[in-house]
Amino acid sequence: MERLERDVVIVGAGVTGLTAAVTLREAGCSVIVLEARDRVGGRVWTDHVDGQLYEIGGQWVSPDQTALLEVLDDLGLDTYERYRDGESVYIGADGVAKRFTGGVVPTNPHTEAEIERLIVLLDQLVAETDPAAPWEHPNADELDRISFSAWLRQQSDDAEARENIALFIADAMLTKPAHSFSALQALLMAASAGSFSHLVDADFILDRRVVGGLQRVPLALAATLDPVDLRLGQPVRGIRWSSAALPVEAVPADAEPADAEPARAEPAESVEVSTDDLVVTAKRVIVAVPPNLYNRIDYAPALPRLRQQLSQHQSLGLVIKVHATYDTPFWREEGLSGTAFSPYRVVHEAYDNSNIGETRGTLVGFVSDEKADALLALPAAERRHRILESLAAYYGPKALEPVVYFESDWAAEEWTQGAYAASFDLGGLTRYGALQLEPVGPLRFGSSDLAAEGYQHVDGAIRVGRRLAAETIESIESLGA
Which stretches make up the Amine oxidase domain (predicted)? Predict the structure, then answer.
């Protein structure tokens, strides 16, 4: 059993963990990053499939993601615009594919007016929502106790308008049915992007890509660390920390340490983090993994009861990211941008995802929540057939014959178990939202799932990594005060 000492142990080599590690090291702290996978990047993964380069995980960069843009500039990584010339395609409740340009999908005049009205209403509510503290919205309790679908029914009697509005939060972002999360959670999602209008504008939210793939960001961050301080294939099994970290007033006389609230006082210095063949003693620990993985670690003492409850009210969504590559981007020749939407098709959205400099054309599409449930129950060949049929409804029969086809199924990834990020169930955001940002003794938790701006994006992961590093540095410095 190898034994090491560091100032800080970081669990997880995703963008959050690596950002925190680099920041801490620059501040003079010794660090080690322990990663369960055999690669860095977490939910960001660029790889070749049958010779074709695919962004298996996150990939897009939008203008509001200033933290990510800053890092790209610092690392010298170039970007390029997503292809968007030509007309988009919308399939409505009537099943007819319609071409259009502009923002609002082509439906009947009443539905179009309702969509525009709901966008304005949501933008007004989002303007009142602080993404760092959505639970402070004046109507937070009410908004957190009604599902987004029920709230939409209160606002409009137009089913197609409601389905289209829900698509941009439920299907496209949280990847959960709109009846399973609150209206306040929907506002947080939109507020993290600056407005609801940003979410419905594909040319904004899916603006650019990184040349060579977004995983170049965590790979470049990892390359700045000493190899001995980045250990892959090392799932953390246990974290042992001192109960002396808990202030006296937080521990009832007849209570176990697990019943105490999170420590507010500066905790004891020693924490022990163990993997199957490594033990690291440190002053502080940053657990930089999605909330659904917190319970994969054995804590001694156990986390306080409310923290254990919190993690049971957060869950990741479910989405299949579909990649289909063709000899040529045939849709461009037919005047199509590659952008397509429909709340009624298996693939609810799709885009031209061709890599810069390639003559081949690639489409990327998404199947989420209950539609993904149904498809994942099918044999692989039947699932592929259903998905390609859905793409053909947008682009024509040529979409049925890709030369390379691949499905990113993050729910099957042992160290992720879903996508894109965690969100709360009904009432969870007001009940537990603020608590998730609090340290537990010498432990801090965070990932893009806990971001304000850039929530569930690489931009948010960078912001959270910087925040956790700053808090950890201040905490360590206070030990010598």
Answer: 16-471
